Amino acid sequence: MVGNHDPIHSDDGGNAVKSLSQPESPRAQPGSASPGKLLSVPNDPSRGNSLDKSPSSDGGDTLVSGISPVDDDDPLKPDPGNEKEFQVENNVFAFSPGQLAKLINPKNLPALRALGGLAGLERGLRTDLKAGLSLDETHLDGHVSFEDATGAIDAHIQDAPPAPTRTGTAATSTPVKLHSDSYADRLRVFGDNRLPEKKPKSLLLLMWIAFNDKVLLLLTAAAVISLALGLYQTFGVVHKEGSGASVEWVEGVAIMVAIIIVVVVGAANDYQKERQFVKLNKKKEDRTVKVIRSGKSMQISIYDLLVGDVCHMEPGDLLPADGVFISGHNVKCDESSATGESDQMKKISAIEAIAQLDAGNPGAHKLDPLIISGGKVLEGVGTYLVTSVGVHSSFGKTMMALREEATATPLQMKLNDLAEAIAKLGGASALLLFIVLLIRFLVQLRGNTDPASEKGQNFMRILITAITVVVVAVPEGLPLAVTLALAFATTRMLKDNNLVRVLQACETMGNATTICSDKTGTLTQNKMSVVAGTIGTSMRFGDKAAGGSNTKGKEVEEMVEVGTVEGFVKNLGPELQAMLVQSIVQNSTAFEGEEDGVPGFIGSKTETALLGFARNHLNMGSVQEERANANIAQFIPFDSGRKCMGVVTKLENGQYRMFIKGASEILLARCTRTVDADGSSLSETQMTAEMEKGLYDTISTYANRSLRTIGLLYRDFPSWPPPNARKMQDDPTQAEFDDVFDEMVWLGIVGIQDPLRVGVPEAVAQCQHAGVFVRMVTGDNVMTARAIAEECGIYTPGGLVMEGPKFRQLTTAQMDQVIPRLQVLARSSPDDKRILVRRLKELGETVAVTGDGTNDGPALKMADVGFSMGIAGTEVAKEASSIILMDDNFSSIVKALMWGRAVNDAVKKFLQFQLTVNITAVLLTFVSAVASEDETSVLSAVQLLWVNLIMDTFAALALATDPPADSVLDRKPDLKSASLITTNMWKMIIGQAIYQLVVTFVLHFAGRTILGYDNTKEMNKELRALVFNTFVWMQIFNQYNNRRLDNKFNIFEGISKNWFFIGINVVMVGGQVMIIFVGGEAFSVVRLNGVQWAISIVLGAISLPVAVIIRLIPDEVAARMVPGWMKRRSNQPVYVSNEDRFQWNRGIEEIRTELTFLKTIRGGRLNQLKFRKQNIKETMKENFSHLFRGSKTDIPQADEMIPPSSPGSHKRRRSRSNSAFAAAAMVPSIVAGSIGGWSPVERPKEEAPPFASKSEMEEQAGISVHPDTARTDPVISSGPLQEGSTPPSQQSHLAPDSQRLQ
Questions:
Q1: How many C-beta atoms lie closer than 10 Å to residue 638's C-beta?
Q2: Per-residue b or e along 958-979, where b marks 16 or more CB atoms closer than 10 Å to that residue's CB
Q3: Has 141 been annotated as catalytic?
Q4: What percent of the chain has pLDDT over 90?
Q5: How does pLDDT run across 978-999, given as a tens digit for each residue?
Q6: Catalytic pick among 192, 309, 518, 864
């Protein structure tokens, strides 16, 4: 035995069996290996379900899993081709990875039975269902046979571990470093939770890919022919004496060298870019999960999850590995990622499932105790035993089969289209040039006495010139520029706490016109503490000064009785104090642990604040002990619809007590009694209308002090479930919450302070200055939301505050009236957020949304850019988002806005530069070649390749790496319909092209006369070298002009922060100097003297004042000069929901539901109806796209939300076994019906008219206008808003006075 830290004892048969009583050991996070490819999205410490999250049940009916009984005599029989997974050398466990994988895909209860059930897995995997793996485990001694493990099932059927009341019931301790061989045998047999890294493309492969460009191949062929002819001319022909060295072969070699340089530099850029993205992917795929090890709940990296671990499940979690459900409360999962079935799957304990299977229950095969990796926990809490990780898990196998390839972003695709158009124009120019020169060449052949090799060389020179024009014209640097800009931006954004998951979000964020932000944790610090409270109706304490800014100070001072916590606690009787402690500690999902090395609580910040209050002031003991001593009968997870959560405990006297906590004003309406104000003993009194009004006033007082108000209730029952309450269909021991949530007893209310984040008011002001409308969308009390929104500058005169229930009742016309001024949407549900986002998009807004809860997923997906919270966000929210805020800070959104604009600007800067060079180089080559007597261009092929290298690779590096300057926030965002090339850009492109052409043409055609050169071969070479040198220097100086896209003159702004730009310019200048001095015949140049260098540099530098003159030209004048086809805007698709616009015959709705399911599950021809035929891999990627980063099908969209809009829709569904036949049978009828005119009809017009005036709107409950709004301000828009036109946020007359865009 080597370092055995896993206690083993021998059973009666002499076999080594893992002890179920493991010693307590300090917590640790195993594994220090570098992370590999992982299975899911990133995360910081996992949260418990809480009041400030929204991971609730979606409602509707819950289906059990469709597990079919397996008729095979051996359910563990290896599948063909997978035999290796069943063979493990020196296996110290009872099972192999292959045997455990038989549990899943398809789900296989007989396989679970054959493995000995849960008890057999416990013994065979040498773990403990209660204490988990030992932190001291290294190499394991002994061996557990298959027979020993599977024979344990009957002995443990009745010995199920107790169902957890919430996750993390044990305290964590200080992390310690594990041994280097920790879990060595377990890792050797089952592996870790990593996927093998996808082998990156090597530099040689990238060079080969770059070289396979058709134009470069064509140019290479021409260069080879030119070299062959040159070699023949040099060595195969007798030269006249005194004719000098013959170097006809140099041009061919120079072209080849230039091609090699272009390929190597391009491949090096791609290689560096791939390395950057690999680093980002590793970062975004890492997250933590909660497991139990040595009896303690702790958070470990998902990479370190092992087979045999006991893993916690809580709402919003993405399941990290396959496993078997141990126990829990009302756990329901969404496994559509693996099965295609979108209904909720109710999980049942494996022990109960096996017991029913053994009892011959005919419905036992429908029970589902199996956990599939990649699924989502919708509600409930529980634990499960991990059975397969990494490549052996179902999710891992799918990912290995479908490796994700990078997809082009919208900007990349737009630039590819532009590059293609430019290439076509350049190709046409080259073809025309070739035809013209070829005709001249053929005409001059008559009477030409040159040898055949010379004639061939002349022809090849014409061909090479034409091909080189194509090389220059094809702007392959455009896609490179946006790729470099995105790679640079995403790397730098990570330092600014923005983890980009979807590349296109980076560029889209730059044009965001409105931000819908959460309050808790985003605008506030999410560091909560209880600073005020009221027990009953009159016993209260409160630190009034801690309330922050006080908008209604006098009112607060009159209504709040300020007292110390110590004095308050002294007046509490022991019975009331004990009840208060139990209400806090039992009705919570937070647990004890450490954050940043400081002992505290881990979980929802609201719950940690309450636990901290109970520990510091109410003498609460260990959370673990308090919960271990409680007998939990039912746990009610937090639901965003009812805004509360609860727990039912059995008391010592046999009665049951239900504790509820949640939104105070909602809970108060459910109360009929209150605890007696005396406080010395626990007694109840009937709640009067006066008491109720006083409590509402207290809630308002706390809310106006920017405090979050949490109400605490309870109610006693003689039995559970109560006889007058409905029982849950899938668990008769549980009561329907709505039937018992009434006639509650008011225990008290606490006010929780969450200070505003430092810098948030400034960040909001920056957004507003940049033309971005900021809205707060929160589930908090309307008064709290209003106070905090006013404090951070979101709620301003002229603005509106609405409550979610009122907002969702508005008609489209009324919604359009209030949206331009809507600044705060309080007490809103995730569905309210989704409705708001959808309408904003329909009105043409580019919407950014923040969210942290599971139910925020649809809104995050629907938004143009979804921001999830790295600290407080659930896994589902992160998976649905485009960018993860690693610090949950609103100020980081401003950084993302700046970087998004920097990406768009970088691409436009490069595009402006490249188009200028394209126009100049192509026209100069064409005109000079046609005008030349020997059909040669003033710029040789090698010179043009150097220019191509400058304008493609070097310029892309220099211009695409500019960090954002503060001035990017001084302008409005670009609209979705805005042209890629603006009027300003056309003005600079055309102006600089004209200047460069004039200079080069004058030098080329009149330079000999102007400079007084003789018409000799040497002087002509000097003149051509002068033209080439001047042309390159104009490009070098023009780079500086292109650092600005507006009409401002400071082109050096921020240049000292961009070392790339400085370095690239040094390389370009150095390269040009070397070419002129040592280029010689290879570059067709001669050395220039001082005067010629001065001419080149001065003419190049004049492009700077020329740019100043161009910027002085009014844009309106320039716009009239630009041809109409250049300004034509493409019609961008606008989000429109057919669900709202059309209504269909009910029969068609039924068939559409069935066909949707059939398309998801069966795939095949139905998947090919809309798009072109795809190969099998692409089809599978389409069907499994929700498993991948950036997928758009991962979260239900607006028209596919789960559950359906009405509970009855579930009842109307046919059984899944008949779906395919029903849908197929109805297709001919649908076709015939459509021919006969059976079509959707417009929904009836909404009856409710728009608001006639501001006063009429203010009369509505749930809508309020800022009290400082001017009387003359109409607030609501007068006319209807046009969909797809200029967004409301960009129309100054619709915005509040304080946010009018200048």
A1: 28
A2: bbbbbbbbeebbeeebbbbeee
A3: no
A4: 13
A5: 777 888 888 899 899 999 999 9
A6: 518
